[in-house]
Amino acid sequence: MHKQPPADVLAAFGCAEVPVRLEGGKGGTWRAGDIVLKPVEFAPETRWRAAALAEVAESAEFRIARPLRARDGEWIAGNGTSAGQPSLGWEASRLVTGRPDTSRPDDVIRAGIAFHQAIARLPRPGFLDFRIDPWAIGDRIAWAELPPEGSETAHSLLRPLLDARRPVESAAQAVHGDLPGNVLFAPGQPPAVIDWAVYWRPPAWAAAVAVADALCWYDATPGLIGRWAQLPEWRQLLIRALVYRIVTHDLAGHWTPGQVTAYQPAIAAVLS
């Protein structure tokens, strides 16, 4: 059961309305009026991301959820204890209208490209060296910064991908590593990029992750691969995107036959 933001957190961010839980995400995001609050998972990332987003210029190509400071000037409120339990605190942002639409992978990728162009000059965040969640480990294994690990199911999927993996030369920058589901569409407005999962990789890798997800989970056809073939080192980035998702899946949960089957056509399409 995800607890709602406590009264001191609501007061710290100036929330005057009763919070209502939002759909999606991990079930812990709440809306109070035009303010969205969610629990902090890794404080160094929250602070870096909020400071970076606060400086992103307005754009005709995308919107962002503007981060909010608490009344004490910090990006996090309520860290310490909450309802008698240890708490990393809460972060807040302005509500952006729209809904995700995973049937529009090309529009998701275009929004991601515009967002990455806007943040291209950001320095590499130091917190990346200390993140040890399944997503961070999956990312490092995909880029050969850690040796492959995991179950035999994962290894059977990974073998042809790792055999085909070659070095890439594209420059890295801060990117959003989880665009599908985190791009919102609203009539008459640019798409909104939310819930920025920060990675330091070539921007085309973020597009490759979106394509891999669309192929595996959102009924996209292999033609989606070809529509973005102009992106640099595309095949190699697609390989890394699939390795990243497979390893993360293996570390974070368990396999069902349907999940294995979902990856196999995507692997074949990328390697063909």
Walk me through what this model shows:
- With 272 residues, this protein is α+β, with helices and mostly antiparallel strands.
- The protein folds into two domains: 7-96, 2-Layer Sandwich (Phosphorylase Kinase, domain 1); 100-271, Aminoglycoside phosphotransferase (APH), C-terminal lobe (Aminoglycoside 3'-phosphotransferase, Chain: A, domain 2), CATH 3.90.1200.10.
- The protein has helices spanning 7-12, 43-54, 105-118, 134-142, 152-164, 203-217, 223-227, 234-252, 257-271; strands at residues 20-21, 30-32, 35-39, 63-64, 67-68, 80-82, 85-87, 90-94, 99-100, 173-176, 183-185, 192-193, 198-201.
- The strands form four sheets. It has a five-stranded antiparallel beta sheet with strand order 1-2-3-8-5. Strands 4-12-11-9 form a four-stranded mixed beta sheet, covered by helices on one side. It has a two-stranded antiparallel ribbon with strand order 6-7.
- Helix 5 runs antiparallel to helix 8 and helix 8 runs antiparallel to helix 9.
- The mean pLDDT is 94.
- InterPro entries: CHP02569 (IPR013402), Kinase-like_dom_sf (IPR011009).
- It comes from Amycolatopsis rubida.
- This is TIGR02569 family protein.
Morphology:
globular
Structural class: alpha+beta
CATH superfamily annotation of the largest domain = Aminoglycoside phosphotransferase (APH), C-terminal lobe
Helix content percent band: 25-40%
What is the CATH topology classification name of the largest domain? Aminoglycoside 3'-phosphotransferase, Chain: A, domain 2
CATH architecture of the largest domain: Alpha-Beta Complex
Major sheet size, sense and barrel closure: 5 strands, antiparallel
The beta-strand count equals 13
Separation of the first and last Cα atoms? 45 Å
Mean pLDDT: 94
Tell me the number of helical segments per DSSP (H or I, 4 or more residues long).
9
**Strands across the major sheet, in which order?**
1-2-3-8-5
Radius of gyration: 19 Å
Q: Which CATH top level class of the largest domain fits?
A: Alpha Beta
Low-confidence stretches: none
Q: Give the SSE string.
A: HEEEHEEEEEEHHHEEEEHHHH
